[in-house]
Write a structure and sequence with these properties.
Layout lengths: L2 H8 L11 E5 L2 E5 H13 L10 E4 L9 H17 L2 E3 L6 H7 L8 E4 L13 E4 L2 H10 L1 E5 L3 E7 L8 H12 L8 E5 L8 H9 L8 E3 L4 H11 L16 E6 L6 E3 L7 E3 L10 E4 L7 H11 L9 E4 L4 H9 L2 H8 L2 E2 L20 E4 L13 E4 L2 H10 L39 E8 L7 H4 L27 H4 L5 E3 L12 H9 L3 E4 L4 H9 L4 E3 L2 H6 L7 E5 L4 E4 L5 E3 L5 H8 L5
Parallel strand pairs: 2-3, 2-5, 3-4, 5-6, 8-9, 8-11, 9-10, 14-15, 14-17, 15-16, 17-18, 19-20, 20-21, 21-22
Antiparallel strand pairs: 1-7, 12-13, 19-23, 23-24, 24-25
Helix pairs in contact: 2-3, 2-5, 6-7, 9-11, 9-12
């Protein structure tokens, strides 16, 4: 078996599992964050559920450390109260990013399983563990039952050949991979990475690459353990762990051989993490700000790389550089090593540990028109603020902040670029309710909305500024208000409408609201060529009908915007009611139908 198959088999009482199998996976550690945690608790209370094992259950408050937003603060306090009543550990606002805390505190280990309301929980692939970001209902089920259903993914293998060139960071490695695979060529796969050079990768290197598996559409990016990794984990946790690797006869759907010696220093251009280019094409682009941190680049090695560039230098006039360590322990280590002092002398703003710029609640956001260079994992429009975000390595971000424009550490000018005047300067919580069981229709009809775009991410569907909303009745009005050309969708959509879109619908975050907003509007069904892995689960679990289709089949149906169609979820038959043309699309699979008829997972 592959690594993912071995882990799932060992956690589902199966001798062997294969791609496509649906099994209940026992979860070793079950986490909820500050924004998702309140909805997890709400789901538990609404359904009269209790905690299966408080010792395996945790809260992590990493999106908005300090509760600077009133709704975040209310959600955090609500979760603290629930934790006190149920004996649940809270890694509070002084602790840091939950996934990093899980690794550093031995809550996850090679071969273990971990879930969180964090779309980058698959960062656990760095230590050959199974990690998944999941929506509120999934996590509630894991807390209540100790296990969740999961479909075993197919695996692909990437062999990185050749030597990594000097100056090519782990961030550059993953940006080079994104330039090869884009946002959906690895969609739904478990990816294993091999190569002589990868054996030398530090834990920080592995974390950087594994974290951005989400941006490649992968279920998870896994590295087999190496002696170097096991020694590093023992130093951090004090525990001895067993090696984890695939079987010698493991079966992969595809194998890719990629020459890492050709990798160069890369930058992702604003809008998409996979819109990558050599730094030479954007060198000298003026910037307003920089950000170093996130679950992708907040380790001590990342801070050291930045400090090496900043030591004895100053941030360019008018430029703001914000640095946020991943955990409080890393923050303390940076202080002990003099790194924090170096940052302060250079003019950096250093914040307490947390997710920072990737979440709306902490430092790192930018304003309209602001140009930021960031080490984050995402730069979707609106994700880190209203400005434009380039993605790069910590060393490049630090060098750019000193220069005032995008550059590399070896080409920092003696005098920084300056800004010139342009003359423009002008909760209440729901109580448990009894839900009526109703027979849900398996055949629906409706008018079509065609949205001809690939890779529509969850920030476009339901922006993160609305994440504190827990009442589904309020969600519909914000649907697609961050998707260009469809900002008025919620005002024009009618109950019973059907949405048809393209590849990788629902990429990005694990937010349940990006599904629930369609339920709020009464949308009958969503058809897409493919879905983001977490989004697909969230829709199925919420009893939101979603199906897939092949482009050539849909073309045969001659469907135009505004047409009326009929869809049979059980048979997968789609009929254009205007032309009478009928085609076969993907149908509900058994587990999906069972959850749909139950009215949802919970």
């Amino acid at each position: 078996m592959t690594i993912i198959e071995k882990i799932i088999a060992s956690h589902s009482n199966q001798a062997v599992v294969k791609p496509g199998d649906i099994v209940d996976v026992i979860i070793d550690t079950r986490a909820a964050r500050d924004f998702g945690g309140a909805n997890v608790v709400k789901n538990l209370l609404d359904n009269g559920l209790t905690i299966a094992d408080p010792n395996k259950t945790i809260f992590t408050f990493d999106c908005n450390p300090g509760g600077s937003d009133q709704k975040y603060a209310a959600n955090q306090h609500y979760c603290r109260q629930y934790a006190r009543e149920n004996g649940i550990r809270v890694y509070d606002v002084d602790a840091g990013i939950g996934t990093h805390l899980a690794i550093d505190n031995g809550l996850t280990w090679p071969g273990s399983t971990f879930v969180s309301t964090d779309s980058h929980a698959n960062i656990m692939g760095a230590i050959a563990a199974f990690g998944q970001g999941m929506g509120d209902q999934d996590i509630a089920a894991a807390w209540a039952k100790g296990a969740v259903w999961f479909k075993v993914p197919a695996s692909v293998k990437i062999n990185l050949t050749g030597k990594r060139q000097p100056g090519v960071s782990a961030k550059d490695v993953v940006l080079n991979l994104l330039s090869v695979f884009g946002a959906n060529k690895l969609l739904g796969y478990s990816v294993e990475i091999y190569g002589e050079e990868t054996e030398k990768f530090t834990l920080a290197d592995r974390i950087t690459i594994a974290s951005m598996g989400t941006e490649m559409g992968a279920i998870i990016v896994l590295f087999p353990t190496s002696p170097t990794l096991l020694q590093e984990l023992k130093r951090i946790t004090g525990k001895d762990y067993k090696a984890v690797s695939a079987g010698a006869d493991a079966v992969y759907e595809q194998t890719f051989d990629i020459d890492m010696s050709k990798f160069v220093t890369m930058v992702a251009k604003p809008g998409h993490p996979h819109d990558d280019t050599s730094i030479e094409t954007v060198r000298n682009q003026k910037i307003d700000s920089g950000f170093i941190g996130s679950c992708t680049n907040g380790r001590i090695e990342d801070l050291r790389a930045a400090a090496d560039v900043l030591r004895g230098r100053k941030i360019a006039p008018g430029v703001v550089l914000k640095i946020v360590p991943a955990t409080d322990a890393i923050w303390t280590q940076a202080m002990d090593e003099g790194i924090i002092q170096t940052f302060k002398e250079a003019g950096v703003m250093v914040s307490n540990a947390g997710c920072a710029g990737c979440a709306a609640g902490q430092v790192g956001q930018n304003g309209p028109g602001e140009v930021t260079i960031s080490t984050g994992n995402r730069n979707f429009e609106g994700k880190q603020g209203k400005g434009f975000v380039y993605l790069a390595s910590p060393a490049v971000v630090a060098a750019s902040a000193v220069a005032g424009f995008i550059t590399t550490p070896d080409q920092i000018p003696d005098k920084p670029a300056l800004f010139h005047a342009t003359g423009d300067g002008n909760t209440s919580r729901a109580v448990r309710r009894e839900k009526e069981k109703t027979v849900k229709p398996t055949v629906v009809e409706g008018t079509v909305w065609i949205i001809p775009k690939d890779d529509i991410d969850t920030d476009m569907i339901f922006h993160n500024r609305y994440l504190t909303i827990t009442d589904i009745r309020e969600m519909g009005q914000y649907t697609f208000d961050n998707l260009k050309g469809f900002e008025d969708f919620a005002k024009k959509a009618k109950p019973g409408n059907i949405v048809i879109t393209r590849k990788n619908f629902g990429a990005g975050s694990s937010r349940q609201q990006a599904v629930d907003c369609f339920l709020s509007l009464g949308i009958n069904c969503i058809l897409a060529e493919s879905y983001g892995a977490i989004y697909e689960r969230n829709a199925i679990n919420a009893a939101m009908p979603i199906l897939t289709y092949k482009p050539e089949i849909m073309a045969q149906a001659e469907i135009q915007n505004g047409d009326s169609i009929r869809i049979d979820f059980v048979s997968g038959m789609l009929t254009n009611l205007g032309t009478g043309k009928t085609v076969q699309i993907g149908k509900f699979y058994e587990a999906q139908l069972a959850i749909y008829q139950n009215g949802g997972l919970l």
